Amino acid sequence: MLEYIDKKYKPGKDELVAEYHAEPAYNVSMEQACEQIAGESSIGTWTDICTMNEKIAKELKPHVFSIDGNEIKIAYPAELFEAGNMPQIYSAIAGNIFGMGILKNLRLQDISFPKSIVKSFDGPAFGIDGVRRILKIKKRPLVGTIVKPKVGLNPKQHAAVCYEAWFGGLDIVKDDENLTSMVFNKFEDRITETLKMKEKVEIETGQKKAYMPNVTAETNEMLRRAQYVKKIGGTYAMVDILTVGWSGLQTLRKANLGLVIHAHRAMHAALTANPNHGISMLALAKTARLIGVDQLHIGAIVGKMKGAVAEVKNIGEDIEHKMIKGSKKQHVLEQDWNGIKPVFPVCSGGLHPGKVAAVIEAIGSNVIIQAGGGVHGHPDGTRYGAKAMMQAVDAAVHGIELKKYAERFIELNKALKKWPG
Ligand code: CAP
Ligand code: MG
Hints:
Helix content is about 40%, strand content about 15%. With about 425 residues, it is of the alpha/beta class. The protein folds into two domains: about 15-120, 2-Layer Sandwich (Alpha-Beta Plaits); about 125-420, Ribulose bisphosphate carboxylase, large subunit, C-terminal domain (TIM Barrel, Alpha-Beta Barrel). The N and C termini lie far apart (about 60 Å). The chain binds 2-carboxyarabinitol-1,5-diphosphate and magnesium ion. 2-carboxyarabinitol-1,5-diphosphate binds near residues 300 and 371.
């Protein structure tokens, strides 16, 4: 039987390092668990095999080089992976091992990709600077909304809501994650109507606006929809990166359509929510950045989603310090990665004007803040909800106390009355 554990081993620069939290099943030792995880994710199986040879073992054997309680680190030779093929990489380091009977729990916490693999992916086409250039916004956070109800409006109604939000001052309007091409709201009709409104409001306000249409669908259809957006003058494609899968996301990125990719992470919590099992948001975020999303939902910190604080810290579970403003290190979406552009973090879910300052305090100004209910739920409607959001951002970036600022602005005042917390 091959032995994978070697605590003296020093991973080479060209190896992929995966970090796991592993809990062995009853009567299984940590060492046994580590051997099985390393083997099953690479060249081994549950028993000795006569087809194994020295060459394979020498060149492709991974090494478990650190075991610290339940936290383990494994270095894998880059040759175990097909460069440029994220599904294959996940089939190895996040595949069968999750289902092994010798484990009670397993969580992929972090992945460090070697240069040879980093080089084989495109990374974001635009990144933070590219998006800022398109919208002509240099420093402040970008602010957006999600059309609500999530599904139900027809294309004209949808476009009218977008118009109101943009006219009220928001930079971005996006489709919701489950709005694609519905019987009551066909994709092409919605995109055409909404882009017409975008053009109108850009002329009226003199401001650049963004519309993020949801292209999530079966891969070929997704691509066709993204091409349609490009053809009629759109600038963005929004996609649910986990439900379309890494393959779908790679296809969209590799099509190089010149569209900014906005990544919604619907379904992530099935993987990320259990702290002892699954895949961390940190690992997913790194993967999405490598493939090439420009903007990524990371959690709202003070929002509506379960475990919001933990989720965002989870983009840096081991890296809490990288995420929080004031620390020396940048969070994982912005770190210097050999020419792979930084990704815009998106904070969304349960936000409203009263929560804006806390988001900026935690993440800084390089953030996209989105509010759906927190805009369309304003007592005077979408346009005024949009204004209130922009006023809250203004107050935060100028360091003015929100309640004081609200004395001067009726829209903000009304929003704070409705959502005091
Ligand atoms: C926000 C949102 C987003 C969530 C997803 C929603 O709407 O559009 O999908 O932010 O969570 O439908 O909930 P509200 P996350 O502003 O009305 O809450 O970004 O954490 O993946
Ligand atoms: Mg949504």
